[in-house]
């Protein structure tokens, strides 16, 4: 289902600046359409708030005249709407980026937003599956489909996510040309950055089995993973399959397709992999993002200690 275009309730001069900003995000920052749409929704929510707050659509002059109290009023309104701290922090990050763009491109300068602190999002720890649960997920993925080729597709996709640590969007963006044929493949991730990912033989075999059974021809420019009608596979279909597996395997709600990527990193770390290598394999821009997995492994070790050590059981 195609989403409706985002409407920016803004005066013509501000709407033109927004169009320039979106073009800059795409061309200069190489942001994906998904990212640009997310930023756009955040900005559109702010403009909608300003209509009631200012008594009409904002223009560039109105934006440059906003005070810290105006931005705090926006946060208060979003909190009243039930928005989470993480979402409010993301929206403020979008606004800061937009106002910085306006300043850098001579649309106007307003330092007021720098005086406003967004709510600090709660620190999240990646939710990884146990090694046994991850392997059971790969086996179960093929059992939920009646059509053999769809069963092979799901098994190949889940094996790829866990075996190579890919994001779901990265896997579904692969074409026939990207189909792994050697011990490594190049993946294009966030910001169109490319990274080299090792490919296990069982991952290649799973994908070969799927392609061999697929009733649709997969050319070099065709999507590698397709739906029942031969079009690119919708991520919602994959997420639905994972939801079906949770009760069958006794998995928590945190067991999503993305959890297989977290499991990939956590199990590498537990097996002795170093953080720098895992950072490269995951395509993280900063090491601090990858370091979240050290906390996951520390929690695993603590649980094992409490369950097994005699002094932990009988203080």
TrEMBL record:
Main location: cytoplasm
GO cellular component: cytoplasm
Active site: 167, 190, 258, 261, 284, 293 (o-(3'-phospho-dna)-tyrosine intermediate)
Any GO molecular function: DNA binding
Subcellular location as annotated: Cytoplasm
One Pfam family this sequence matches: Phage_integrase
Record's keyword terms, sorted: Cell cycle, Cell division, Chromosome partition, Cytoplasm, DNA integration, DNA recombination, DNA-binding
One biological process term in Gene Ontology: cell division
This protein's record includes keyword Cytoplasm: yes
Limits of the Core-binding (CB) domain: 12-103
Domain Tyr recombinase: 124-306
Keyword Cytoplasm: yes
PANTHER family linked to this entry: PHAGE INTEGRASE-RELATED, TYROSINE RECOMBINASE XERD
Physiological role: Site-specific tyrosine recombinase, which acts by catalyzing the cutting and rejoining of the recombining DNA molecules. The XerC-XerD complex is essential to convert dimers of the bacterial chromosome into monomers to permit their segregation at cell division. It also contributes to the segregational stability of plasmids.
Family: Belongs to the 'phage' integrase family. XerC subfamily.
Subunit details: Forms a cyclic heterotetrameric complex composed of two molecules of XerC and two molecules of XerD.
Identification of the protein by name: Tyrosine recombinase XerC
Species of the source: Magnetospirillum moscoviense
Gene: xerC
